[in-house]
Amino acid sequence: MAHPSQLGFQDAASPVMEELLHFHDHALMIVFLISTFVLYIIVAMVTTKLTNKFILDSQEIEIIWTLLPAIILILIALPSLRILYLMDEINDPHLTIKAMGHQWYWSYEYTDYEDLGFDSYMIPTQDLTPGQFRLLEADHRMVIPVESPIRVLISAEDVLHSWAVPSLGVKMDAVPGRLNQTAFIASRPGVFYGQCSEICGANHSFMPIVVEAVPLEHFENWSSLMLEDA
Known about the structure:
5-stranded mixed sheet; alpha+beta
């Protein structure tokens, strides 16, 4: 999860997020090189009194500074499009979960089970136990098996919400009357935190999302207990 004074992204917990981190570094290096080159030209133009007459009117230089930006844009666009299609790819999910946004809590329904669903509310500050995070902990976590393709169907009951978990590289709007879907694979066990990312009213800041990735055997035990309690 994020920590104070953090400059970069959270550690990736899914293959898609790893790809996004690599693309971010790739694009940042291109921006850094362009900025350095432009700064060098500005400093050279300001500090020297010499003028090269071949630079003032040169067909070759005009061709270069037309083609070079086009090539750079292609180097950025191709990996970007690849990741865009990867994020939209949903192949044979092992588990489907419906996440419904409300003012101001989330409800989850495991559609592969007959009667497995619950509401997830933020734990108030006064009820937190040592080690829990303020404004991020929920009374019921969305538990998923690790290294399994998970499909999440996302909608809202009242106003616009957004289901976002940065570590998993997932962010999808929850729109009333519309069913959006996204997919991810948790590549390691852990607890991953997110929040509603669409301003949805007075308690918008109090809609945490907690995803707990566990081994398949632990997930089966958890689902059995939840079905017994239901």
